[in-house]
Design goal:
By secondary structure, the chain is mostly beta strands. It has one helix and eight strands. The chain folds into two domains: 94 residues, Cupredoxins -  blue copper proteins (Immunoglobulin-like, Sandwich); 31 residues. The strands form two sheets. The protein has a five-stranded mixed sheet with strand order 2-8-7-4-5, with no helix packed on it. Strands 1-3-6 form a three-stranded mixed sheet, with no helix packed on it.
């Protein structure tokens, strides 16, 4: 999966990485491309064990790749030196077409950070392997 870093402008406001939402499966790699003249230091917006808070630095006209080996439904990230640059990484446990409806609902619950409504309360239990 490839992600482009937004080109720096003097205009205020949030600038999103392209794509804004990166959808990957555990074990896949994301590569960020920096076409601009500034160095970017990508960080997670909150600490998410087992990942370090820092993703990595990307030099001007450079690339940086990182492999994601652990399941986390949603990771928001930004640039430490340009905090208005934002994006979200969505990590699935397996390919979406291989997921059951229950697994999809669990993932969505984790992505949104919500508890399931009473009718779906069975989703709050850990899956039986």
């Amino acid at each position: 999966m490839s992600v482009a870093i937004p080109i720096r402008t003097n205009e205020p406001g949030t600038r999103y990485f392209t794509p804004r939402f990166v959808n990957i499966v555990v074990g896949e790699t994301i590569t960020w491309y920096n076409a601009g003249k500034d160095t970017h230091s990508l960080i997670f917006d909150t600490e998410i064990p087992p990942y370090d808070i820092k993703i990595g630095d990307i030099i001007p006209v450079g690339i940086f790749s990182k492999r994601f080996d652990f399941y986390v439904p949603r990771i928001d990230y930004s640039c430490a030196t340009h905090p208005e640059e934002k994006g979200t990484i969505v990590i699935y446990e397996k390919n979406e077409d291989e997921m059951t409806d229950t697994e999809r609902l669990r993932h969505l619950q984790g992505f949104l950070g919500t508890k399931p409504p009473e009718v779906l309360s069975h989703l709050s239990h850990e899956p039986i392997v």
